Amino acid sequence: MTDRETSSEQPRPRRGIKSYVLRAGRMTTAQTRGLEDVYPRLGITLQAGERLDLDALFGRKARRVVEIGFGMGASLLEQARQNPDTDFLGIEVHAPGVGKLLDELDKAGLTNVRVCREDAIRVLDEGLEAESIDTVQLFFPDPWPKKKHHKRRIVQLPFAEKIRRILTPGGTFHMATDWEPYAEYMVEVMRDAPGFANTAEEGDYVPRPDFRPQTKFETRGERLGHGVWDLIYRRES
């Protein structure tokens, strides 16, 4: 799809700036199994004009957590394993990560996760009811470090406003990054976002909570001397 007109009648609508780039990659047998065999059971396909009925999708009413951009799914898998009484909705656009998580969820017999292979902005705007989510997680998003690419960062004021709409009063927005300039930028955005309060007791960041599993990527980074910054904001009523 391009921004050029394809006919003399109507131009195609312009797309918003994406915070991700879809890259082609080879799929393993397990990842393909996840997409083809497990997605019909644990995957979600958004229908135009319809909000997701989470109670029906999970078959119960429970605490709800949304993780945006779960990558290969290691953190989300571990959280689901440790918290069987919590329901998780994972959002990711890249097929290998979606397939891998679904395959591992199925092999582990976990039923408290649903996966949506979709642009997170569309899910926030169209899929989720207001005040329906207890926690939103955004772990290690692409920092787009070059200044000319900052417009691609997912953390922007309009994005924060979308998060606030779906959070329950008192619900939390939890971000983590290993890029300090991006952490500082997140703080600046959230200072301007109405209806949020920083939960840090000192400074802008919180210590890594025990409930956020440490990934192999993060452990390797720590060995190399890389820092990680966690930010947790509470939605005020």
TrEMBL record:
Binding site for substrate: K146, D178, T215, K216, F217, E218
Catalytic activity: guanosine(46) in tRNA + S-adenosyl-L-methionine = N(7)-methylguanosine(46) in tRNA + S-adenosyl-L-homocysteine
Keyword set includes Transcription: no
Cited InterPro entries: SAM-dependent_MTases_sf, tRNA_(Gua-N-7)_MeTrfase_Trmb, tRNA_methyltr_TrmB_bact
Superkingdom of this protein's organism: Bacteria
Binding positions (S-adenosyl-L-methionine): E67, E92, D119, D142
Enzyme class: transferase
UniProt pathway: tRNA modification; N(7)-methylguanine-tRNA biosynthesis
Cellular component aspect of the GO annotation: tRNA methyltransferase complex
EC number: 2.1.1.33
Coiled coil residues, start to end: none
GO molecular function: tRNA (guanine(46)-N7)-methyltransferase activity
Keyword set includes Lyase: no
Name of one Pfam family that matches: Methyltransf_4
PROSITE patterns: SAM_MT_TRMB
The entry's keywords: Methyltransferase, S-adenosyl-L-methionine, Transferase, tRNA processing
Function: Catalyzes the formation of N(7)-methylguanine at position 46 (m7G46) in tRNA.
Family according to the record: Belongs to the class I-like SAM-binding methyltransferase superfamily. TrmB family.
Protein name: tRNA (guanine-N(7)-)-methyltransferase
